[in-house]
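To illustrate the input format used throughout this study, we show a single complete record. The first block contains the structure-token representation of the backbone; no residue identities are included at this stage. The design step must infer an amino acid for every position from geometry alone.
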């Protein structure tokens, strides 16, 4: 199934857009559409989930697993979620490449206070608390159409209708991106893989942090043994690198590469994609 992701602040109209696109594809194009809903995954305690990083991570894991379980080449999966983490969108992009299907992203850039007012119109038990709402807004990593995992991107402003025909063309009239080494599942042929994965990614992280002490902001960083440079355009914190490393390790455990020498290169490419 081609994949369509929504992205936006809490209460920014994502579920409404998902419903509009689903209705169009089913009624006008005769397509089967499955909506994977973040609201359903969160249950009745979304404020509690978004206040607990571990529970939030578990929900994202369930959403990703459900999307990847459902993907095929013919119908449509709509992920109705905030999708506010750049690395998470990248992981889903890699998943769609692995399944050799297309994807697109619909962004709902509702102004913050308008989204908050829409939140207050919900039944009391379905509203975000202000501190949770503000926290999600602060953590929101807006899509950028120049990133291949956020492209093609369609921006739908409040009051506008989604560009249905353009969305259909992106999903069904274009070729999916070709899979590459980083998105191909390989057999785990050695019990040393996890050790090598941990060691290699730690070496890259240490090299970046060491180089940043003397490098100017935005300077390309060379990692020993890797042909491609780390080009982030800015100085990054250890916390940012650690989070990206955890995300890369999680993905690599599910999609191990057979050539261990490529682990560092793939991690450098991942850093350039998610932190650059």
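Output of the design step:
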């Amino acid at each position: 199934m081609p994949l369509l992701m929504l992205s936006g602040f809490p209460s920014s109209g994502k579920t409404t857009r998902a419903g509009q696109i689903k209705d169009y594809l089913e009624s006008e194009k005769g397509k089967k559409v499955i909506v994977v809903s973040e609201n359903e995954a969160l249950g009745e305690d979304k404020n509690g989930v978004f206040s607990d990083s571990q529970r939030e991570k578990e929900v994202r894991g369930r959403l990703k697993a459900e999307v990847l379980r459902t993907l095929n080449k013919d119908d449509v999966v709509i992920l109705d979620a905030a999708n506010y983490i750049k690395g998470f969108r990248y992981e889903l992009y890699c998943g769609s490449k692995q399944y050799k299907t297309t994807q697109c992203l619909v962004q709902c850039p509702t102004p913050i206070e308008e989204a908050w007012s829409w939140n207050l119109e919900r039944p009391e038990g379905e509203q975000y608390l202000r501190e949770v709402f503000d926290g999600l807004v602060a953590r929101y990593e807006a899509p950028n159409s120049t990133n291949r995992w956020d492209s093609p991107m369609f921006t739908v402003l409040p009051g506008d209708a989604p560009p249905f025909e353009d969305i259909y063309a992106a999903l069904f009239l274009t070729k999916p991106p070709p899979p590459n080494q980083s998105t191909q599942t390989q057999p785990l042929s050695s019990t040393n893989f996890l050790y090598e994965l941990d060691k290699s990614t730690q070496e890259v992280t240490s090299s970046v942090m060491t180089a940043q002490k003397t490098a100017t902001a935005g300077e390309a960083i060379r990692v020993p043994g890797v042909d491609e440079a780390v080009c982030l355009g800015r100085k990054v914190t250890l916390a940012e690198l650690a989070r990206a490393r955890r995300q890369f390790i999680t993905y690599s455990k599910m999609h191990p590469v057979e050539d261990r020498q490529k682990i560092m290169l793939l991690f450098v490419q991942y850093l350039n994609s998610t932190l650059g």
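Structural context for interpreting the output: Residues 171 and 264 are 33 Å apart (CA to CA). The radius of gyration is 20 Å.
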